[in-house]
Amino acid sequence: MNRDKALSPLVELILELTDIEGHAHREGLGFGLSISSISVDLPMELDVYQDSVQEEPLRLGVGPPAYQMETSFTTVFHRMRLTITPQYGEK
Amino acid sequence: MAKSNNRAWNLEAFLDSFILELDKARETLALKGMSQPLTYAVKEVSLDLNLFPEYNGRDVKFTTAGPGEEGASRISIQLGSISDRQIRQTTKKPIGEDDIPIEAIEELDQDAKQTLRQVGISSIKDVEQLERQNVKLEKVPKIKEKMGDYQNLAERLKRIRKGYLSHTQSLKEKAEREGLQPRITRALLKEEGADKVITLEGDNLLITGNFQARALINQQEVEIIGGNERHLKLRVAAGRLQPGGNLLQIALDPYTLIQLNLS
User: For B183-262, which CATH class?
Assistant: First the structure.
């Protein structure tokens, strides 16, 4: 089955959402803020498809709403909520 | 707007794929964490999906609601973090080589397999474990109701596993034998009283301990009086050997027959 090319694999969306660098602070101010968690609540389009081989696992294509405009029929939006938290490494 | 590619899927397959995607993200972020002092990871995920459920009498499947389709059901899924230890504690061990998954048993129809799955039986070893806990499968109400036609179910399943183990052992021995081809380098003939003793020397002759090798000379059985990997001794009664040619056939094991012409 063909996938909807407008949508991406879920892993890419997650990696994009978690691609945050460092803390929020200004040089020389002496203090800063750190992020304790981020909640993301987003409507999304979802495509559940399978490659031609039936035994292959299902594949999920996701993406934020592609169009904001009202049309004669409504796109169905699913909803995904993610809680993103910092992980401190050894370095 | 997304192009609709709707097809029906079951919840387990969907969750498997969803978790696989999350795992891929986790692995990538773990790698990133090895070089970065601070990274961000997904701790909790929840999904609200608009779906149309279908029930065909056996499975519940879902179709994702497409553009313009109203009246869909909403399914919410919450996934939280779980430690490796918790996973180990709450996950069944994979089905081992000495076991048979219920799915692979041809003697059971699909309804029977589903009934067993519903009561938590995924392999024949599960059945044996229940028996050890004194559970009579045939008396479990769900099984009694749905699988009344399967008499002595536990016994039949155990026999299937026994047959499978025996078959697996044969295949293993066969594979071992295929890697150890017999080779005869010399044949000696010696007289012992009225009889003759033929000694065959070589490699990989008798390598399976649980099979009684058999030998024929000119289509008549002769006694094997000893042997190991490197030699084999046969006693041949007087008069069995003919001048000219003698056909010697030896079954070393169920997979190996050697044939020699002794003259």
Answer: mainly beta
